[in-house]
Amino acid sequence: MDYFAQQLINGLVLGSIYGLIAIGYTMVYGIVGMINFAHGDIFMIGGFIALISFLVLVSLGLTAIPLILLIVLLVSMAITALYGWTIERIAYRPLRHSFRLAPMLSAIGMSFVLTNFSQVSQGARVKPVPPIITGGYTLHEGASGFAVQLSNIQIMVVLATIVVLALFTWLVSRTRLGRDMRACEQDQTMAALLGVDVDRTISMTFVIGAALAAVAGMMYLLYYGLVDFFMGFVAGIKAFTAAVLGGIGSLPGAMLGGLSIGLIETFWSAYFSVEYKDVAAFSILIVVLIFMPTGLLGRPEVEKV
Amino acid sequence: MSGDHILIVDRLMMRFGGIVAVNELSFAAERRKITALIGPNGAGKTTVFNCITGFYRPSGGAIRLAHDDGRTIQLERLNDFRISKQAKVARTFQNIRLFPGMTALENLMVAQHNALMRASGLTLLGLLGLPSWREAEARAIELGRTWLNRVGLLDRADDAAGNLPYGDQRRLEIARAMCTEPALLCLDEPAAGLNARESGGLNELLLSIRNEQGTSILLIEHDMSVVMEISDHIVVMDYGVKIAEGTPQAVRDDPKVIAAYLGADEEEAIAVMESGT
Amino acid sequence: MSATSARPSPAAQPSGSAFILKKALISALVALVLFSLMIGVRTEAGPQGGLIYWTRFGDLAALVATVFGGSIVVELLRQWWGPVDKDSIVPKPVQSAISFAGRWLAPALLVFTFLVPVIFYNQRYILDLSILVLTYVMLGWGLNVVVGLAGLLDLGYVAFYAVGAYSYALLATNFGLSFWVCLPLAGILAAFWGVLLGFPVLRLRGDYLAIVTLAFGEIIRLVIINWQSLTGGPNGVSGIPRPTMFGIPLTPGDDGLAAKLGIEFSPTHRLVFLFYVILAMALLTNWVTIRLRRLPIGRAWEALREDEVACRALGINTTTTKLTAFATGAMFGGLAGAFFATRQGFISPESFTFQESALVLAIVVLGGMGSQLGVALAALAMIGGFELFRGLDQYRMLVFGIAMVLLMIWRPRGLIGHRAPTVFLERNQAISSDLVKEGHG
């Protein structure tokens, strides 16, 4: 039971990170209808920028960890958001009204560019950081000596996810920008006729998605204590799987999918085999899609004859 | 309900969630006759079509198809492509569904898929290019040519279907449905968007299909000049139920029909009353 | 990094040096922010395990200046060129000249390909590269059946390539079966896996299809890595037998081909032999595909891409139609995989990553979906181009990615922008790809 509780905690933390990335996929899909294959690499860039800005701040003599973390968060969100904006401008906007596979391949190309850009600019080796947030709580000490641990960093990841999600939900449901986004999702032409600046709204979608990925990248850095240029691919595929599992285009679905994938992976590793955890996640995705072809919370597709 | 019926719809029900789109609808279509299904917008006509052609599974009731050879097929038990393949029911769509990137002739070749599949020995004999396959292919092209000629599109045979004008696309879709050699042809608003001259041509085409091929036709149509001129029998629907049926003359004078159309749309009501003269 | 709007309307487009300068400044500013930390600061794990960093402000300044200059050049070019109408970047007379050349291009290319081993007999590098290009041509033609004809998106095509390669490698090393016996078996096994993949994706569309095929490709790769007792895991399978010419090995020994023919042995013989094997396999793929397109099954694939609902109304069993498309494409992938294994003599999971799937898909899309000639040209351009950048070393993939983005923006519908009809009465005229649907992908 204790072991189970521990895995539950671990799974939820991992799932939170996946969920934050998955929202970026689902948002872009909902509005532009394309898979942003470069999104996983945006997450990786976010991790790198958090790492570098942290390093620079520490060497500048700052010592207050909370202040450093806040600045790192804002800097990585801002710069990563600019990456999202630029990529949309260069690689996707010229293909917006084109045939659907072209933007997808352009996105795959962009993903190669980002992966290799950070390999070339920061080297291929893994970048480790010493644990920044340490300590934690022992929730329950079992008779067998197994203790359920909840570390501070885990609390922080979950809290950050909740805060970011709350902000994001408010943004989508209460603000002018959120309304524009939902309008564009329904019908871009009509939205444009009613005075919505479609180009700007789409740009903002990429900006927000990238900023969320930056949060995920920073949490990943703090939680696992390392970044490398290739981490965007695996995390990206997992998050994309999460978005589809939840029903692509659905924001709560992305979070639900992220948590599901995180839990599946953690529990599979804990009770079966670590090697096959990804196989398990992908297989469950396939099985779910056989029975629910539009994911857990996706709108069923009505075929109009 | 006497006579030689090809299609018998018996207490057909179709519900979507809580909405009853078709409620206990019964009617029959006579063999080698043209039966029209009319009614105001939203009356449930296309839903009936989708039930007959296997795109929806009815919530209740039965749809029976009686072939010339005495076979009776329960259409509500078949689904999807089997309606066309086994029951020989072909259809067209309200919003034309051609294969726009294929030529007119290719569209007609695709329609002969099942016959050609058999002739090509499920692809294997065709891959080897055996003479029997070559003959079958030549016959299929010949059938395509015949139908292109019938609908007046012989000179556009090698043009992409998506490049044809609207009226031509409508006729090509009918030709494509006929290439499946159906026993029952279901047409969903074949005259929609056609001008007066084109819908006159459509009338001739449908009459010749009935007379020469002996194909039974069931059509949904709003254009009363088409309905009244060529229909042998008319079924009038409103709000998912049948409100009248009979010959064009009888339906035109039926006060219930006039009321339904007046309630729905004044122009259509006037069209019903004034047409067919 | 130019921040230009995608569709400039000619009337509203301002010009003048002030405008260009402003744009270039904005681009440079964006570049400055983007690269500030990633280029300006270089991190590395230090000798004690901790992280160290050093600054590279010179590189940063140079890069930002490049963006500034590049942005001015791009903007000047754009104004000199006039408003770009994407559909007709190429003027009409040039287009007709191209289409004339196109008629002769395929036969000329074929003749040239046959002569490659004769012309480049002494250049092993070119022979090796040609074999690689032909392998990708075959893969492209195979995937073209699924993506280009049936319009089903497949992001996990490399799985079938892997199934074919491992089928041959394991059958040959464990049971001593020869290449020519294993080749059809590899094809059949891959086709079987194609059908297996086909079943769950029958009801899926678009992006759901994309992720499931991608997941399938990853599953196959992960199983290969982890099932060490069968596949050797990350170490791969080595000592895979080379193909023989109808039982005669291409070795220096007494029973080798050279000895039997009474000529001096040369390792090039085997390369030439491999070249003609893959050429024959690729041409077989091409021939079968062209043949299938004119058969009802091929027309049904294309009709499925155009309109699935209409297919069902015409009595076409869309389930079997999709499954046959998956199986046919997978079979060609498996055959190419078996060839890959025998050519390399060694295979490992590293050769079957998502990047390979993306590369083959890029070849198909860049070729112009459904066009056989286009796919061959695209394979030549992508693989050949990739080799040209070999000197760039670590920048190679970066340049490759940029090229992919630019190619897609330049020709979103591929190099060959039309579809050839499969049957005609009077005129065999091409159909503009603007009319051709893209299917569920």
Could you explain the architecture of this structure?
The complex is a heterotrimer of chains A (305), B (277) and C (441). Chain A has 11 helices and 4 strands; from the N terminus they run ααααβββααααβααα. Chain A has 305 residues and is mainly α. Chain A has a two-stranded antiparallel sheet. Chain A has a single domain (2-127, 136-291), classed as ABC transporter involved in vitamin B12 uptake, BtuC. Chain A is globular and about 65 Å long. Chain B has 2 domains: 1-88 and 182-277, Rossmann fold (3-Layer(aba) Sandwich); 93-180, 3-Layer(aba) Sandwich (Rossmann fold). Chain B is globular, with a radius of gyration of 19 Å. Chain B is built from 12 helices and 10 strands. Chain B has helices at 45-52, 82-85, 104-111, 113-119, 124-128, 131-150, 166-178, 196-213, 224-230, 248-253, 255-264, 266-274; strands spanning 5-16, 19-30, 34-38, 60-66, 72-74, 89-91, 184-188, 216-220, 233-238, 241-246. The mean pLDDT of chain B is 86. Chain B has a 6-stranded mixed β-sheet, sandwiched between helices. Chain B starts with a strand and ends with a helix. Chain C has 441 residues and is mostly helical. Among the domains of chain C are: 17-81; 124-364, no CATH class. In chain C, the strands form 3 sheets. Chain C has a two-stranded antiparallel ribbon with strand order 1-2. Chain C has a two-stranded antiparallel sheet with strand order 3-4. In chain C, helix 4 packs across helix 14 (354-367), helix 10 (267-293) runs antiparallel to helix 13 and helix 11 (296-306) packs across helix 13 (318-344). Chain C is globular. Residues 1-12 of chain C have low confidence and may be disordered. Chains in contact: A-B, A-C, B-C. The interface between B and C is large, with 47 and 39 residues.
CATH fold call of chain A: ABC transporter involved in vitamin B12 uptake, BtuC
Order of strands side by side in the largest beta sheet of chain A? 1-4
Please give the count of helices of chain C: 16
- Structural class determined from secondary elements of chain A: mainly alpha
Q: How would you sum up the major sheet of chain A?
A: 2 strands, antiparallel
Q: Please count the beta strands of chain A (DSSP E, at least 2 residues each).
A: 4
Q: Unreliable stretches of chain C, pLDDT < 50, 5 or more residues? A: 1-12
Assembly type of the chains comes to heterotrimer
Percentage of helical residues of chain C? 55-70%
Distance between the termini of chain A: 52 Å
Say how many strands of chain C there are: 6
- Structural class designation of chain C: mainly alpha
Count of helical stretches of chain A: 11
